[in-house]
């Protein structure tokens, strides 16, 4: 939807946003109001010790449209401060689509006469005629941007060409752009000495991958000279709607060479899309991402809109590494250092059939939890279940069947929005985890989003859910376990990242 821009005074009192609604995540980023989708322009400013998060934002409506770059900053990736939109359309018939941002320390662009901390944003300008790659620069650390006079910097006369991710390729001392020819299901690599003049370097094509269009590619450098190519696809991802794949390989300055035959699904659930990775992190930092915790199948109709005037949150920030699982390079992930919001350990309550924690007294209704199953024989039997519940009768369930390793999460019991509202809001997510004498998994639950990390961080799920009252109790129960088996639960309250 396009609204005439002249009719729109920007309504955004971003500082006065209301984060107190019962569905509002407290340790996940969500927009001050209205509709948010992809994260954009993630960069870390070491000089000011500040993480920037831009995002696709429609400041006027609860559905997608009128894309601006919304903006927030944080010192720890959990406490966020909202700012006015950083990049807005100049005309009524254009959108500021997804992209990235980099610090141009060496003034390669020439935009920054007297500084070593200039910021260049690289984004797709979307109009009815074309999608082109454009740049804008900021001399104030990333709060306000000036569009480059000679935009676009890449125009191939296509309406399906978007989501540039730019990083500095130190080995070849040039900028590298990873961008999607969306409808062709091709990833293009371009290089540039100055962020203005771009040369096509190579194409990487995977037409056989399930999903209709490629979006938001990110080529991420890991340790051990490895690169991982993340590609989001929509619609038609394997679990329905939108989803993300990754492929491990290496990049030689012009070409990406995969090291494994297959793309791997980043998650075994539906609600993690368009992840972007921070640029300009300190040298020894592991790669950190933030993803969009929703799915195009239902993002524009979930009940937070009517009830609380906002739609969609981001995932928690995640740190990543590479590990070999049965000889195959695999990406691990876990929540980025939670210490900035981690509160007190919650007391366990023992029951004949398990253990529980009551977190009704945790003001945020957000907790971090770890479940550890140990002492299993080589041929384990039985199952372990976890069950979140609310005083209003909502529940969110999951568990693991120990003989097969089937790990599942079921959101059918949260009552405000279910598969009866939209059949694409599928209740079940599942995967298969290794059970080797035991297993452990951990998660963050935060009012309307659950993230679970299993199998030593090689598997994860992001699950949005909508209870009629906040879930505030976690019970873990076991059935049919052999003698000597033990199920441990540890949970900590999380402090809100918002001033509410
Ligand atoms: C904030 O939102 C909640 C839930 O939507 C509402 O109950 C509350 O009145 C709002 N507070 C203010 C100050 O508007
Ligand atoms: C800046 O210049 C230094 C010295 O030439 C080089 O090592 C570094 O890679 C450059 N970085 C960027 C982002 O331009
Ligand atoms: C940055 O580049 C511009 C254009 O080339 C130049 O005028 C300016 O002197 C440069 N500044 C620095 C500090 O290198
Ligand atoms: C751009 O593409 C359109 C649609 O395919 C075509 O009609 C037009 O001639 C093209 N313009 C140029 C400059 O190539
Ligand atoms: C790269 O892929 C795009 C999209 O399919 C195509 O238009 C372009 O011609 C390709 N470039 C080269 C050099 O093959
Ligand atoms: C990068 O890979 C391409 C394709 O395999 C090859 O043609 C090119 O020579 C390689 N470049 C370098 C610097 O090794
Ligand atoms: C990997 O891809 C090949 C060929 O497309 C396919 O035969 C094989 O089953 C795939 N393996 C996995 C683990 O998905
Ligand atoms: C979901 O369905 C229920 C039952 O029909 C209805 O009351 C509710 O308004 C629907 N919610 C949304 C967000 O569509
Ligand atoms: C609960 O059970 C655990 C392990 O079985 C035990 O260590 C703990 O002391 C028990 N707590 C209470 C309050 O009984
Ligand atoms: C696991 O999920 C897949 C994909 O959604 C589904 O096809 C399969 O039936 C599920 N398996 C079980 C045992 O629930």
- Radius of gyration from the CA trace? 22 Å
The CATH topology annotation of the largest domain reads as: Tachylectin-2, Chain A
In percent, how much strand structure appears in the residues? over 45%
Categorize the overall geometry. Answer: globular
CATH superfamily of the largest domain: Glycosyl hydrolase domain, family 43
CATH architecture of the largest domain: 5 Propeller
| pLDDT < 50 stretches | 1-8
**Total of domains:** 2
Account of the 3D structure:
- The strands form seven sheets. This protein has a seven-stranded antiparallel sheet with strand order 24-25-34-27-28-29-30, with no helix packed on it. Strands 23-35-26-31-32-33 form a six-stranded antiparallel sheet, with no helix packed on it.
- It starts with 33 loop residues before the first strand and ends in a 6-residue tail after the last strand.
- The protein has one helix spanning 304-308; strands at residues 34-45, 50-58, 68-74, 80-87, 95-103, 119-126, 131-138, 146-147, 162-169, 174-181, 186-192, 199-205, 213-222, 226-234, 243-251, 256-258, 264-265, 273-277, 288-292, 310-311, 318-325, 328-335, 342-345, 349-351, 354-358, 366-374, 383-389, 395-401, 406-410, 428-432, 439-446, 449-454, 459-464, 473-479, 486-494.
- Strand 9 (162-169) and strand 10 form a beta hairpin.
- The longest helix has 5 residues, at 304-308.
- It is built from one helix and 35 strands.
- By secondary structure, the chain is mostly beta strands.
- It has two domains: 34-335, Glycosyl hydrolase domain, family 43 (Tachylectin-2, Chain A), CATH 2.115.10.20; 341-494, Exo-inulinase, domain 1 (Jelly Rolls, Sandwich), CATH 2.60.120.560.
- Bound molecules: 2-acetamido-2-deoxy-beta-D-glucopyranose (NAG) (10 copies).
- One 2-acetamido-2-deoxy-beta-D-glucopyranose binds at residues 18, 20-21, 308.
- The site of one 2-acetamido-2-deoxy-beta-D-glucopyranose (NAG) has 5 residues, from loops.
